[in-house]
Specification:
This protein is of the alpha/beta class. The chain has helices spanning 14-26, 41-51, 67-70, 111-123, 155-160, 170-179, 184-192, 212-221, 228-239, 241-254, 260-264; strands at 31-34, 56-60, 72-76, 81-85, 100-104, 125-126, 129-130, 136-141, 162-165. Strands 2-5-8-1-9 form a 5-stranded parallel sheet. It has a two-stranded antiparallel sheet with strand order 3-4. It has a two-stranded antiparallel sheet with strand order 6-7. Helix 6 (170-179) packs antiparallel against helix 7, helix 7 packs across helix 10 and helix 8 runs antiparallel to helix 9 (228-239).
Length: 265
């Protein structure tokens, strides 16, 4: 399976990716976000939509057929010609005309699906459908080195996109975690072990590994109502056995520390 090379010398933190995307959208230039799994590429686009009061049309191309983008052909008895029925998910001049069209996992989609997306990105049209002028396009996908299923991106399509590689940054994640009420034990543990926010290694056979996404799973799963052994099993299933043991020790120590509100009273 062929690969798509990208410039790995510039890896942007999520905060800066947000700024770069804002500029691309302002001038109407489609962008492609590259990055490993679980670092929050999709969540970043959703947050931008909320912040800018723009609807996000999230199309996971890996799950689509070409007709989901191009539409289904039908015979028009009036003109006696074949036409294409427009897909209901795509925006029109009267429906979501200021949307952000997010084509996620574009390089994991089958070549036939990529071909339909290719025409939409290059020409802002596919078949008889035209993308409204107010719609912004953003693509995303994992790198070829991330053990995911990927197909080579055609050079004309790659040349049409602004390529941005997104990395993991603890300070950006910490701010997000506090605002989204991530479990205090998760924030506390990672504040002392910043490098363990992201431990993905494409060469490792481990099924569970630490990413911002899997630590969020830990935040949802861990509970004082469960036996600590059960908590450890859930954490191990999310971020791996080694980190689960370290996290359990952190929780044990943290549980004996006085609460700030008790000290201040």
């Amino acid at each position: 399976m062929a690969t798509t090379a990208i410039d790995s010398t510039r890896v942007e933190r999520p905060r800066d990716v947000r700024t770069l995307l804002a500029r691309c959208m302002k001038v109407g230039r489609p962008a492609m976000i590259w990055g490993p799994p679980g670092i929050g590429k999709s969540e970043l686009i959703a947050e931008i939509g909320v912040e800018t009061n723009r609807p996000v049309i999230d199309m996971r191309l890996l799950l689509l057929e070409p007709t989901d983008i191009k539409g289904i052909p039908y015979f028009d008895p009036e003109t006696k010609t074949m036409k294409w029925a427009q897909p209901a998910d795509l925006p029109t001049e009267t429906f979501l005309s200021n949307a952000i069209l997010f084509l996620d996992e574009i390089n994991a989609a089958a070549p036939s699906v990529q071909a339909a997306a290719y025409q939409l990105i290059l020409n802002r049209r596919v078949g008889e459908y035209h993308l409204p002028p107010g719609v912004s396009m953003v693509c995303a996908g994992n790198r070829d080195s991330d053990k995911g299923v990927t197909y080579r991106m055609p050079s004309p399509l790659a040349n049409r996109l602004v390529h941005i590689e997104m990395g993991c940054n603890f300070e950006d994640w910490q701010k997000w975690a506090i605002n989204n009420r991530v479990h205090a034990d998760v924030v506390g543990f990672l504040s002392h072990h910043k490098q363990k926010l992201f431990t993905f290694d494409s060469k490792s056979p481990d099924k569970a590994f630490a990413t911002p996404r899997s630590w969020f799973f830990v935040s949802q799963l861990v509970s004082d109502d469960l036996a600590e052994s059960m908590n450890t099993s859930l954490v191990a299933g999310s971020v791996g056995g080694g980190l689960a043991t370290e996290f359990a020790q952190h929780r044990k120590v943290a549980s004996k520390m006085p609460k700030p509100e008790d000290v201040l009273l």
